[in-house]
């Protein structure tokens, strides 16, 4: 790879991707996209994977325009060749600016993304023999692969392939198609979407003058060679759309992405993976007409929209894209003004130096200083001219791009993020100090041996008391079990004596039996030493009743 870069560095010779550039193609092959039967969906899936793998879905067309302008490629002819080094600088500036804009919770590797994208672009250029790396190829491929709205991307493409009066130049559009269709060819979809010499004429066959709004109709009815481009954008929009219905083939619980409903088989619906690969079941056939759904609407919502459309409350059909003015904004020619200003500024500098420095500065030093200031003034004039062009000339009509304001906002965001990091570091430091202050320090405890000795004695005494308490509890438990046995014996004896008394009641009067409750209350006075609710849980109800009566007697 380094040998190839050094060989072609600085000139637009034909390029060849090195073995490192095949890494992204190996990852693409692992996705098993070749099992998709439909070539349009297969191409869109492959290019969508390339877009997400290179993190281009996080960059919109306005970021691309800004990077192209910063690297100076906006002032270069479209057919001019550029070096690999300049391409690397452009791509690296894209991802470096992206890493600054992303939140701290979402990070990317700018270097890895730069290497992957550069190698893929070089492989796409190499997909056709005798191809060159030109400004148009870089702009076309980045415009097709970046994220953002499709309408904005097509407006930028139209600004590159139209003339000053806002009319499409067919030769430029043909060159754009040649470069853009290298992307499907790079992912081995050239037989379906490769470039031919008749493609430009077939896109607009009956139109002699193609203006901006007519060119934007590609969004609604794209030509066959670009049908994968709107599909790739629709796939990006429905990646997280959930449909709460099951697939009729794989029986999956819910669908994500597209949903396909058969217009002939009632209630037959397929997920995107089954439909793309031609899976069918039952009486359904691949020849049946299917309708693609990109969102889920409940029956109530469908009924409400149908009624609103019937009553004329909402428009039945929305335009595929907004309508823009056909004539582009005129560009002011500020060349003569800047030349006159430079001449006047040179005269002012010469007079000022003559008055102020001619008395004590050597002539050679004076000339060097004057040249340096003249160069700085020229640079400032160029910056001012660029700002005036950005304010007056709009690459995309009705969309002024104020990059100075964006730069100030980015600087403000960077300052706020820096202050946020400082505040988080201060909070972390205060928490650490608080935790350290709350925890007892072993050094402080070791300075007072008397407290340590008393603490050890208290702990030892506590352990002894706990052991004594456990032994007393166990002894009391055993006494309660024995007491329960005695209570059962007393009850049996009482029942036996009552039976005998009932049998011989006419012979001799019965003697009242002693109350077991009163005897129990006097047998175990130790039971009042501990509360009964934590030690009488395992004994009989008679014992608990006896202890309750014993406590009442103690209270009286």
TrEMBL record:
Keywords: Coiled coil, Cytoplasm, Metal-binding, Zinc, Zinc-finger. Residues 494-556 are annotated as: Disordered. GO terms for molecular function: zinc ion binding. Its main location: cytoplasm. One of its GO terms (cellular component) is plasma membrane. The keyword Zinc-finger applies. Coiled coil: none annotated. It is found in: Cytoplasm. InterPro entries: Distrobrevin, EF-hand-dom_pair, EF-hand_dom_typ1, EF-hand_dom_typ2, KCMF1/Dystrophin, Znf_ZZ, Znf_ZZ_sf. It holds the Pfam family EF-hand_2. One of its GO terms (biological process) is synaptic signaling. Residues 497-525 have a biased composition (Low complexity). Residues 242-298 form the ZZ-type domain. The keyword Zinc applies. CDD domains: EFh_DTN (cd16244), ZZ_dystrophin (cd02334). Belongs to the dystrophin family. Dystrobrevin subfamily. This is Dystrobrevin, beta a.
């Amino acid at each position: 790879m380094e040998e190839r870069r050094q060989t072609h560095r600085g000139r637009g010779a034909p390029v060849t991707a090195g073995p490192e550039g095949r890494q992204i193609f190996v990852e693409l092959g692992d996705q098993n996209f070749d099992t998709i039967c439909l070539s349009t969906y297969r191409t869109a899936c492959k290019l969508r994977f390339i877009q997400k793998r290179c993190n281009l879905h996080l960059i919109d067309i306005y970021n691309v325009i800004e990077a192209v302008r910063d690297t100076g490629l906006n002032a270069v002819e479209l057919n001019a060749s550029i070096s690999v080094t300049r391409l690397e600088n452009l791509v690296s500036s894209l991802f470096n600016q992206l890493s600054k804009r992303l939140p701290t919770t979402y990070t990317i590797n700018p270097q890895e993304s730069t290497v992957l994208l550069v190698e893929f672009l070089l492989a796409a250029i190499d997909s056709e023999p005798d191809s060159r790396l030109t400004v148009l190829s870089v702009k076309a491929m980045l415009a097709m692969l970046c994220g953002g709205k499709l309408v904005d991307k097509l407006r930028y493409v139209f600004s590159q392939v139209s003339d000053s009066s806002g009319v499409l130049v067919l030769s430029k559009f043909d060159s754009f198609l040649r470069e853009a269709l290298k992307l499907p060819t790079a992912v081995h979809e050239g037989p379906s979407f490769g470039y031919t010499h008749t493609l430009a004429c077939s896109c607009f066959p009956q139109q002699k003058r193609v203006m901006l709004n007519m060119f934007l109709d590609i969004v609604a009815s794209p030509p066959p060679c670009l049908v994968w481009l709107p599909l790739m954008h629709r796939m990006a929009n429905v990646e997280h759309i959930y449909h709460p219905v099951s697939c009729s083939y794989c029986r999956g619980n819910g669908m994500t992405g597209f949903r396909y409903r058969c217009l002939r088989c009632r209630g037959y619906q397929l997920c995107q993976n089954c439909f793309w690969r031609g899976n069918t079941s039952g009486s359904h056939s691949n020849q049946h007409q299917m309708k693609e759904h990109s969102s889920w609407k409940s029956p109530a919502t469908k009924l409400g929209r149908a009624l609103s459309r019937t009553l004329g409350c909402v428009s039945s059909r929305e335009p595929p894209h907004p309508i823009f003015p056909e004539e582009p904004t005129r560009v002011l020619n500020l060349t003569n003004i800047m030349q006159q200003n430079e001449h006047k500024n040179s005269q002012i500098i010469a007079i000022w130096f003559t008055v102020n420095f001619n008395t004590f500065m050597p002539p050679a030093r004076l000339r060097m200083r004057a040249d340096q200031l003249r160069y700085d003034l020229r640079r400032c004039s160029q910056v001012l001219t660029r700002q005036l062009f950005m304010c007056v000339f709009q690459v995309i009509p009705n969309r002024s791009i104020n990059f100075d304001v964006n730069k100030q906002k980015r600087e403000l965001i960077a300052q706020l993020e820096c202050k946020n990091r400082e505040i988080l570091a201060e909070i972390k430091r205060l928490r650490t100090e608080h935790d350290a202050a709350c925890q007892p320090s072993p050094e402080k405890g070791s300075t007072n041996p008397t407290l340590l000795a008393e603490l050890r004695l208290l702990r030892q005494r506590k352990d002894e008391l706990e052991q004594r308490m456990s032994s007393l509890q166990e002894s009391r438990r055993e006494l309660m079990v024995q007491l329960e046995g005695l209570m059962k014996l007393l009850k049996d004896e009482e029942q036996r004596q009552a039976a005998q008394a009932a049998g011989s009641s006419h012979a001799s009067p019965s003697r009242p039996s002693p109350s077991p409750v009163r005897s129990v209350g006097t047998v175990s006075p130790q039971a009042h030493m501990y509360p009964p609710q934590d030690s009488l849980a395992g004994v009989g109800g008679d014992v608990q009743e006896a202890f309750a009566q014993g406590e009442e007697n103690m209270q009286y």
